Amino acid sequence: MTQIIKAEEIRKAFTDKVNEYLSEGMQINIWSMSGTQGEKAKVDVTDGVHIYRISLFRECGWIDDDNFTHRTDTMVLTVEKFEQQISNRVNILYDSTLWNGRGETVYSKTWYALGDIYSNNAFTDDVNTILSNSKKSDERYALRRGKRHTVAINEKNILKVIHNHYGYKRLYVNDIDCVYKTLYADGVIASYIIKFKPELKKPDIQVKLPLSA
Question: What is the pTM of this model?
Fold first, then answer.
């Protein structure tokens, strides 16, 4: 006889299988489920009435201190509560998406990356530590910049480079703080750095194309 089961039983089977592995001491591997817009991982759980979405995002954060803005990479853990139970919908197989950011945030925790998020696995939730590190980094940058020479730029070339980057379409030459070049030990040009005015809160752009031609 053909066995007929309900969607609720499939959900329970999925939950039971996850619990089976967790009970053996395994952990959810959040680093292999990256989605779009900085999403690293998410899990939806339900009590039968509400859905709670546990999400982890990588974001570019900004911390203001003494009228100066510091940029830092962050990992943000949030829990959102949704009122509607999607499993009660008729067309569960095709209409079962809840969008991030549309629920009630019931928990949020932020960790700040100590240094480059791509090369450093160290994080802290202490804002003062981040501000201290950022100020030291700014001081080192100022010293390095003093040894670098800004370069003359061709307006047509610079705008083409800027507008080819997502999120920079509306920027213009007047939004640039300076352009300087970095050198290898033998004096050969390694790349050009386009630095924007601080109030724009835009990360630098690094390119290897000649901008002064």
Answer: 0.58
